[in-house]
Amino acid sequence: MIDARKTLRLGAFMRPVSIHAGAWRYPGAWRDANFSFPRLSYLARKLEAGRFDAFFMADHLAVLNMGTEALRRSHTVTSFEPFTLLSALAAITSRIGLVATGSTSFDEPFHVARRFASLDHISEGRAGWNIVTTSNPDAALNFGLEEHLDHAERYRRAREFFDVVTGLWDSFADDAFPRDAASGTYLDPARMHVLAHQGEFFRVRGPLNIARPVQGWPVIVQAGASEPGRQLAAETAEVVFAAPNGLADARALYADVKGRMARIGRDPDHLKILPGAFVVVGASDEEAREKRDLLDSLVHDDNAIDSLSIALGHDARRFDPDAPLPEIPESNASKSGQARAIAIARAENLTVRQLARRFAGYAGLSFVGTPKTIADAMEEWLLSEGCDGFNVMFPYLPEGLDAFVDQIVPELQRRGLFRTEYEGRTLRENLGLPRPANRFF
Amino acid sequence: MIDARKTLRLGAFMRPVSIHAGAWRYPGAWRDANFSFPRLSYLARKLEAGRFDAFFMADHLAVLNMGTEALRRSHTVTSFEPFTLLSALAAITSRIGLVATGSTSFDEPFHVARRFASLDHISEGRAGWNIVTTSNPDAALNFGLEEHLDHAERYRRAREFFDVVTGLWDSFADDAFPRDAASGTYLDPARMHVLAHQGEFFRVRGPLNIARPVQGWPVIVQAGASEPGRQLAAETAEVVFAAPNGLADARALYADVKGRMARIGRDPDHLKILPGAFVVVGASDEEAREKRDLLDSLVHDDNAIDSLSIALGHDARRFDPDAPLPEIPESNASKSGQARAIAIARAENLTVRQLARRFAGYAGLSFVGTPKTIADAMEEWLLSEGCDGFNVMFPYLPEGLDAFVDQIVPELQRRGLFRTEYEGRTLRENLGLPRPANRFF
């Protein structure tokens, strides 16, 4: 019996197919995967065969790179909407978790609560909610807004949104539906709660018009690494999708967030910290590095500066590309993304152009090497409390994903670091998370 | 070769499983079908085996019957959200159309356009949008609103919402995505249109972040029978879900709407009028009537008055149950529902209680009898230009649906009134509707 605290949790991070801007140009890659439910079905089934915890669907609420040359190069311009995609995948899988990104910035809590509850019922308890606030100014323009809320206001709104959504999920006790044909009692109204929420941002009466989710609540996932993001995670998250710069940074984040949990009386085991990890596997470490180099070379120059602009929240085309990064004023961009870009530039003494190329491919944590090299690194991160597992990013599809499932998963299983069968039927059961009590019953 | 103009189109109207309040109490009925994706999968597959045009998912944005005794009796209190359900059904079917109800009252055009486009891609061209405006006051309270827009304003908003959604669907030409790896051109920006809509109710920049739907636009479905509803249908609808009181009424509606189309230069064949028809089949006409009587007897008294209240937009508990219906002032309720209730009460000289019982079961068009009796009626309606087909309501599940597919469909096929194989792959192809041109390319 493996000690559950010492095994990895693995999510698959599917940002319209791959996060890497060059992925669709890689030899043999499925260029049409963004349009193709059969392709995505293959990938989801393969991940389930590899016993992945979850298929994690990132999202944006606008075409990115608007008005730039990079638009022409970008495969993220078209993407399935997360709920429609994940519900369809629910019907053709049986165990893998299905995590949808849902923004609190331009939607109604009633709609969001209802869609997640429905996905959780349809998948028989496999839904997760990646709560994000949307900082992309292009998105605001699709919803009649010229200006975004500022960072602090976005987080206050996100917190209230979370409270309303979870309150709506608790509209019905688990025994609220006797469905007794003889007496004609379908519902026991005494086991139904009317939320009647009135807050700073929302007024929502309720109840939700769907039974409580199978998992009580879908699994709560967050990504913010800023100060309010960490506190919100410690209070509410069950999975954190982290983006540390290295193991030392990861260990600091791990200790910080789990420490915050302990201070407010939450069991630190009830939150799984999963850094995003870009994984390129080869028969030798050298072959893997060559694959990574080939992939990065497929990023078009147009993409590079624009990706950096998005990370910084400033137009990087105005900077001298061959000079060091200038001082960057505060903006409404994601604070963690901006801070990471600046940190990398300063730490490695990169020019704007060099930094831009890193950002256009993938600038975050990556493991490149043989299955043994990669398993060694993952084991070190796990055992040194740098993480509870990883949200894996595949460099190109299907080969990068197939290679992970066929080569790295067996190596992790051989070491006792990863499951060989799913432990339970729901995402919560597989992640080792408790089912939340209903606050009203 | 059957003349396509003389064959029936059949939709299956699935209002959380059945429209009839007594359906879940019928002997042998699936009481848990509202919670069960496997049950709904069975029903969708059976409808597809019966060559139905579409699975039509009605919707509400609130728990109905709030604060009344009928709440305890109502199986509509819990329901899957349409997009999550229909996407999951898309994955386990291949030909049947998937029509989701989408309200224009409490959602954003960008979200609605995107979900329908995604469902249309995932289903490979089988999506339809039932456009409704929401008049239920309980729904408004779930979205921070105390008062609904008035009837005229709701329709103006619906029309603008439609224009924005269809404009967003046209964001990309069909050839916008060359995905040419050699040159690094994924998208041709010259084949992308930025909508930049500014209207009375919405400001939406666009473009939509998903390729144009497979069908160009999902099939446009409407139900309103009021004066502005008919005009909106003639201008924009491709399927009308009608609720006539009888054949004469149906023929008048048919002639009116198709006449309006001709006057504005639309081909009247490009809109299919499908009255809702509640169908109870038996081995003899008498057995069928007994089934209907048993079903109606299973409606609890609590339901009756409350159903009437919803139809009228007034609390019918205040009326003398054994007196005729009093004069009803105008309200914000659906004008067509209110008018129908008043018309039935006056025409049949019903007391409030009698009228209430009719409304709680199903007060609209119904065909009750043997397969021959029902096919005779459907044939008469079709050939006398009362309709282009029906949106069938099943009295209880699965038996009522199984009986329709196993007994009535073969009788209709024998008469040459219904297809024996799907004509095409998309819902448009099966309905005989043209693919809309892209207004920008």
Description of the molecule:
Two copies of one chain form a homodimer. Chain A has about 450 residues and is of the alpha/beta class. Chain A has two domains: about 350 residues, Luciferase-like domain (TIM Barrel, Alpha-Beta Barrel); about 60 residues, no CATH class. In chain A, about 40% of the residues lie in helices and about 10% in strands. The first copy, chain A, has 14 helices and eleven strands. In chain A, helix 1 links the parallel strand 1 and strand 2. Chains A and B meet through helix 2, helix 3 and strand 6 of A and helix 2, helix 3 and strand 6 of B.
Q: List the uncertain runs of chain A.
A: none
- Give me the strand/helix succession of chain A: EHEHEHEHHEEEHEHEHHHHEHEHH
CATH-defined superfamily of the largest domain in chain A: Luciferase-like domain
Strand content of chain A: 5-15%
Strand order of the largest sheet of chain A: 1-2-3-4-7-8-9-11
Provide a concise account of the structure shown.
Two copies of one chain form a homodimer. Chain A has 441 residues and is of the alpha/beta class. Chain A has 14 helices and eleven strands.
List keywords for this structure.
homodimer; 441 residues; eight-stranded parallel β-barrel; two-stranded antiparallel sheet; 11 strands; globular
What topology emerges from the helices and strands here?
The structure is a homodimer.
Chain A: E1 9-14, H1 37-49, E2 54-57, H2 82-92, E3 97-103, H3 109-122, E4 127-132, H4 137-140, H5 151-169, E5 197-198, E6 203-204, E7 219-222, H6 227-236, E8 239-242, H7 247-263, E9 272-281, H8 285-297, H9 301-312, H10 335-348, H11 352-360, E10 366-369, H12 371-383, E11 389-393, H13 399-414, H14 427-431
Parallel strand pairs in A: 1-2, 1-11, 2-3, 3-4, 4-7, 7-8, 8-9, 9-10, 9-11
Antiparallel strand pairs in A: 5-6
Helix pairs in contact in A: 2-3, 3-5, 6-7, 9-11, 12-13
